[in-house]
Amino acid sequence: MKKNYATLLILGALTLAKGGIAQDMSELPPALGPKVYKGVSLPEVRSYHEWHNLRAPLLKSIFQTEVYGRLPTPNSLNLISKTTVDEAAFGGLGRLEEAVLTSDAHKVRLHVAYVVPKTPGPHPVVIVTAFCGNGSTFSDNRLSLPAGGLPEFCARFKNMPPSATDDPDPYLIAPPVEALLKRGYAVASFSTADIVIDDKATAIIPLHLLNPTAPPNERLGAIAAWGWGYSKVIDFLETDPRFDPKRQAIYGHSRNGKAAISAAAFDKRIDLVFAHQSGRGGASLSRSPVGEQVSNITGGFPHWFAPNYARYGDDPNRLPVDQHELIGLIAPRPLLLGAGVDDQWADPEGAWQAAIAATPVYQLSGHKGLTQTTRETPNLSADIAYFLRPGRHGTTLSDWGRFMDFMDAHFKTPRKP
After folding, report:
1. CATH code, domain carrying 102
2. What pLDDT digit, counting tens, does each position of 81-131 carry?
3. Cα–Cα distance between 335 and 117 in angstroms, integer?
4. Could you read off the pLDDT of 333-348 as tens digits, one per residue?
5. Structural domain of residue 250, as residue ranges?
6. pLDDT value at position 195?
7. Residue range 351-369: average pLDDT?
8. Does residue 289 fall inside a structural domain?
9. d(CA 396, CA 169)
10. In this entry, which stretches build a coiled coil (predicted)?
């Protein structure tokens, strides 16, 4: 019955998706149906207890083996220093600080910058990844640069002021921190380059050092390594009583959106996720024929995923899992997915269908999952919300507005356990 229901949901999505490309998703692994992987056979999932205790551990193992690589070996980062950068940041709304965390075992030096509202806490917090360093997140050049400096593309954003229009460029680099502070949210930022620089020629050795015992074909990929960065920031924030450990949200766009959604699947301390335009290897189904394909992404960015993922480039239908099951690992925590009409490379339709196919897992836990009937009108109070806006790849002011409204709906009202 659950398998048939999931199929009906997918077919319904194809009917409701305006302008979407009809896809045959008949080979999509059912989220709750029987599953066989390397001789391990599991029956259909009939309760959330079975999902949590039997299916989820297997899925986490498969995603590490076949898609993201083996996660870093357990090892905490040590706090080296913590400094106050600005007592009255953003017109006196918050206190800007920076911490430096290191791990000799992992060869990582992580700079975490964060601004805390001046209002009484503990505060909900949004953790963001900085494309162009923490200085760009908070518009403060006193903050440390990431390892290896800044990517070349960051030069065009230097001194770019926030835009009052829906220009997708400034808010890709810097979130509306002042608006977040006014709503009562703390903001923390880290640079993925502090963990591993996004360069296929140099990334493999640092990735190997994060988990040197992983088999070669299951070598940790940069996406999961960056996702691990969110968890390390949470390790630090949970030592500070100014932050609420039950209201920790993460945001990521594009490649960082892939990192965010994978991070939430493996770390239950993450309470809410906004994965924006995350595409293949993020929220969009690997089996989808629209936009960037598995062969494109593993060919262009071989360091992003486990080498095993490239084996499915010629036929993604052979994958034993797909991204709706990754979303299922986030259930029942709130997930917001954003997309742009002109951003077909990131496959908005594949993310929409993944959200629908993951909904039975949310329902199994007593939640509703995705409830909206069109892609363009999100239900921001739902457990899974999706929006399709006009425009291209990038993050706009209205994208952030929806994210803040989504957090308000889930963090400022009582939520079902």
Report:
1. 3.40.50.1820
2. 999 999 999 999 999 999 999 998 888 999 999 999 999 999 999 999 998
3. 25
4. 999 999 999 999 999 9
5. 78-411
6. 95
7. 96
8. yes
9. 7
10. none
